[in-house]
Amino acid sequence: MRRRAWLAAGVSAAASVLVSLTLDAHASGPASQVLVDAYGDSTTLGITCSEGHCGPQPQNAVSYLQDELQARYGQKVRVTNYGVGGTMASQLRDGTGNRRAGPTAGLPWQERLAASSAQIVLINYGINEVMQNQTPEQFYAAETTLVKTARALGKEPVLQTSNPMPDNHLNARLAAMVAMTRRVAAEQQVPLVDQFAYVSNLPDWKTLMSDGAHPKPGLYRLKAEQDFQVVDPLVRRLLDGTL
Question: Where is the signal peptide (predicted)?
């Protein structure tokens, strides 16, 4: 028991040192490089469906976002896609999602994020919460933990609402999840990319969907433009040393 207690204390102390170093690094001046990690479901991964076949495409919102950021800042900015199809925010929190998505994917969120050098973390969930019959309250709790943990580790979390779903019944349930994401963003005072509102207001947006959940590449590009408007000021401030 004493050995277990000693090990737990050692892990806790190491985590505290890591948080301190991360915060000091943020406060030490301009960043030489900004790393952005994008976490989410298949709409983050970039699934598109065509002729009955669905698969990840290189033309997705994360790759388009990196293209836009690098067009402005060059190789000083890199965006990494950690989207995993079929996953929920609670799985990211608990480390129970697809373990093939990177060497730290099987770790709980706090450990996984502590091992990441990214300064900005994008979080996009909601659709699978609907499909797996989670409650909005469960989703709210999971996203709140994701955001609080990221902040505690010196990261800048950015929440994204899901794109809407063409099925009216499912979309009504998704709207309740979207409301939770907006609530977390407001309560925790973190940036929000409201993709649900943006896409829902596009004329004939359903024609931009490849199936009941996944955008076509053209809509992924439009989503990336919305992401860019929120992420770009954060990147600029990190490079300037003002964030």
Answer: 1-27
Query: Residue 40, SS3?
Result: strand
Which residue ranges make up each domain of the chain?
31-240
Distance of CA 177 to the CA centre of its chain: 15
pLDDT tens-place string over residues 155-176: 999 999 999 999 999 999 999 9
Q: Comparing C-alpha atoms, which of 156, 150, 215, 144 is closest to residue 181?
A: 144
CA quadruple 67, 70, 72, 77: dihedral sign: positive
**How many Å apart are CA 90 and CA 134, to the nearest integer?**
10
Q: Spell out a b/e string for 150-160, using b for 16 or more CB atoms within 10 Å of the CB, else e.
A: beebbbbbbbb
Can you say whether the dihedral through the CA atoms of 187, 223, 201, 47 is positive or negative?
Answer: negative
